[in-house]
Design a protein that fits this description.
Length: about 100
């Protein structure tokens, strides 16, 4: 099974509310979600711009996660907090390498 990454890029003037929605989603999808890792980031150069990087075991797992009623509910609320549509990138991992220095 190939790892899969979904990137969500969005702009909001309500970062605390978006963060609370993410907490709500984590609690609501306990035992159901297929996401294995999430990084929530803020763009240093463009205030109000955020990028979430979410890892899944496969594309199919990501689509199952997206179709969860809890995910759909949170996504609708999030759209109301964003300045424009959320942009999604669906990425197959073709190379995964740890680049830590050997010491």
């Amino acid at each position: 099974m190939t790892a899969f990454i979904q990137v969500m890029e969005y702009e909001t003037t309500h970062p605390d509310e978006v963060e609370a929605l993410m907490d709500e989603w984590v609690a609501a999808t306990e035992g159901k979600r297929t996401a294995t890792h999430d990084m929530h980031t803020r763009d240093r150069d463009r205030p109000g711009r955020y990028v979430d990087i979410i890892e899944f075991p496969s594309y199919e797992a990501a689509m199952r996660n997206s179709s969860l009623p809890e995910t759909q509910h949170i996504a609708a609320k999030m759209r109301d907090l964003c300045e424009s549509d959320v942009r999604f990138l669906n990425l197959d991992v073709v190379r995964d390498e740890t680049l830590a220095e050997k010491g």
